[in-house]
């Protein structure tokens, strides 16, 4: 079977096609703000202008008559962006007369990670712009064992970068700066039970910058603190659930220092460490296509009447009836 997937929960507009063994095509046309952060209305306008040309390009690579189903990211995400994606997906499903499958975006990150790395029963650390969650399967559901109480780690890195005059996306720029950082400055380490928070840290790091601390040292201190928090919670989930695999997914998964910290922790515990391939770690259409295919093969289909967008869609809401 062949599935087409559309992703567009936030800044990334992406369409992908997969068959049962691999990704066949993946095209991206991201919204990149000229200044400041991601504005939902501007992002959705970008998506609505670009989705048709992007699909046309895709159909030059893949024969649309070969597609068996249309999958789309139904949530969580920014409402205006989700509506563009859902509208395009409904139209395509009706036009091609193929089934529609609404996919939970977080679930898609986990499933494509498992597919492409071979991780079986991992504790997944999902770190992206808007989300930061520690997820593991328990029975017929994925459960969130810990998550951010305010903003996602990617968003936190972007905010700090913006404050220091660096353009969006800030995560990779902070990573580069941090490599040259030498002096660690204490920042609030906020882990509450299994949850964590980043917004206070961002304010404190911004103040460090304002007080004249070198950008390299601010970036270094921020990464060391934030990534240690994420690693601590991931380790506790691993211990509590008695699992022996960690899977890192999401746009921030590209960060080498975060990978290194998790690798060391896994090494100490005798656990295996996996990270999604870069082009499939961030928001992308292939993960939606793959998860849609998986769900369809296990009896899922979303009738048009139920294809409304779900900005607060939780991964726990999906019953997982596959291995
Ligand atoms: P996503 O929402 O999953 O597409 O991920 C986007 C986020 O990943 C943005 O906040 C980026 O700043 C962040 N990001 C991308 N590359 C890196 C990196 N190398 N280190 C840290 N954050 C990154
Ligand atoms: Mg994401």
Structural write-up:
The chain is built from ten helices and twelve strands. The strands form three sheets. Strands 3-2-1-4-5 form a five-stranded mixed sheet, sandwiched between helices. The protein has a five-stranded mixed sheet with strand order 8-7-6-11-12, sandwiched between helices. The model has no long low-confidence stretch (mean pLDDT 97). It is an alpha/beta fold. The structure holds adenosine monophosphate and magnesium ion (MG).
Q: Uncertain regions: pLDDT < 50 for 5+ in a row?
A: none
Hetero groups bound? adenosine monophosphate, magnesium ion
**Assembly category:** single chain
**Rg estimate, integer Å:** 19 Å
Q: How much helix, percentage-wise, in residues?
A: 40-55%
> Could you report the average pLDDT, rounded to the nearest whole number?
97
- Total number of helical segments? 10
From the N-terminal CA to the C-terminal CA, the straight-line distance is: 19 Å
Largest sheet: 5 strands, mixed
């Amino acid at each position: 079977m062949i599935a087409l997937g559309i992703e567009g929960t936030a800044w990334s507009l992406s369409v992908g096609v997969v068959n049962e063994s691999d990704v066949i095509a993946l095209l991206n046309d991201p919204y990149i703000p000229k200044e400041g952060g991601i504005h939902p209305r501007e992002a959705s306008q970008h998506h609505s202008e670009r989705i048709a040309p992007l699909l046309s390009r895709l159909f030059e690579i893949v024969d649309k008559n070969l597609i068996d189903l249309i999958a789309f990211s139904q949530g969580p995400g920014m409402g205006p962006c989700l509506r563009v994606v859902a509208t395009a997906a409904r139209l395509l499903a009706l036009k091609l007369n193929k089934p529609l499958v609404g996919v939970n975006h977080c679930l898609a990150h986990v499933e494509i990670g498992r597919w492409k790395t071979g991780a079986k029963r991992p504790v997944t650390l999902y770190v992206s712009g808007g989300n930061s969650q520690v997820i593991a399967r328990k029975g017929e559901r994925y459960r969130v064992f810990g998550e951010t109480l305010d903003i996602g780690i990617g968003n936190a890195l972007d905010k700090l970068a913006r404050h220091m005059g660096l353009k969006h996306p800030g995560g990779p720029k902070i990573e580069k700066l941090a490599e040259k950082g030498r002096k660690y400055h204490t920042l609030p380490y906020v882990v509450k039970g299994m949850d964590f928070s980043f917004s206070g840290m961002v304010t404190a790091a911004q103040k460090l910058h304002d007080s004249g601390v070198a950008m390299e040292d601010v970036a270094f201190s921020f990464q060391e603190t934030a990534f240690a928090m994420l690693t601590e919670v991931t380790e506790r989930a691993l211990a509590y659930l008695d699992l022996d695999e960690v899977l890192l997914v999401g746009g921030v998964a590209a960060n080498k220092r975060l990978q290194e910290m998790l690798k060391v922790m896994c090494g100490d515990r005798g656990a295996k460490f996996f990270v999604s391939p870069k082009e499939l770690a961030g928001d992308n259409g292939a993960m939606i296509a793959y998860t849609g295919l998986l769900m369809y093969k296990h009896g899922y289909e979303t009738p048009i009447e139920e294809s409304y967008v779900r900005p607060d869609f939780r991964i726990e809401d999906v019953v997982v009836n596959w291995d």
